[in-house]
């Protein structure tokens, strides 16, 4: 095997691995085996797809404990051997990916300000994603016609903008709102606290 690649970050338990080999190698690899403990334990063969370099596979579960893998998040190194159609294993290559299934959290809560007599504008706060992928972040603004973020609401859906003007509001009325967010892998994080504004 010349090399093996995988996504730098993934939230999938079965990410796509790409196995590169010399194009004049015959026969083309028909499968691969994986290890998470420097080759002490190997998986059963999983099928690969493709007829030239690289071949790919998305059939290995990177949280499979029987091969030394764990379900914990963070950096993981995988050792990979491909097999030819005769069942012969080749020398292994290795690749590191970061398993991230936790969404971002608010280190600074969002805020809102009445920007006219009929508009309250929500502003996204500051997000942190620990050792995860981070941004680009998407925001989900929600505004309620109650004082406790329940009942009828309006939302523009997922937005990349860090602010959203909630318009056509009534004067002398309380509105509540909150903001959700997801990271670059679409992991949904903790919603902001429910907050109140009055026009």
- Name the CATH class of the largest domain: Mainly Beta
Proportion of residues in extended strands: 35-45%
Distance between the termini: 66 Å
Fourth-level CATH superfamily of the largest domain: Immunoglobulins
Largest sheet: 5 strands, mixed
Alpha-carbon Rg, integer: 24 Å
N-to-C order of helices and strands: EEEEEEEEEEEEEEEEEE
Count of helical regions: 0
Average pLDDT level: 90
| Structure classification | mainly beta
By DSSP, the count of extended strands is: 18
Level-2 CATH architecture of the largest domain: Sandwich
Overall, the morphology is elongated
Strand order of the main beta sheet, please?
2-8-7-4-5
**Could you name the CATH topology of the largest domain?**
Immunoglobulin-like
Q: Into how many domains do the coordinates divide?
A: 2
Unreliable spans: none
In short:
Helix content is 0%, strand content 40%.
Topology of helices and strands:
Layout: E1 3-5, E2 9-10, E3 17-20, E4 31-35, E5 46-47, E6 55-57, E7 74-83, E8 93-99, E9 105-108, E10 111-114, E11 120-123, E12 126-128, E13 138-144, E14 153-154, E15 158-159, E16 163-166, E17 174-182, E18 195-198
Parallel strand pairs: 2-8
Antiparallel strand pairs: 1-3, 3-6, 4-5, 4-7, 7-8, 9-12, 10-11, 11-16, 13-14, 13-15, 13-17, 17-18
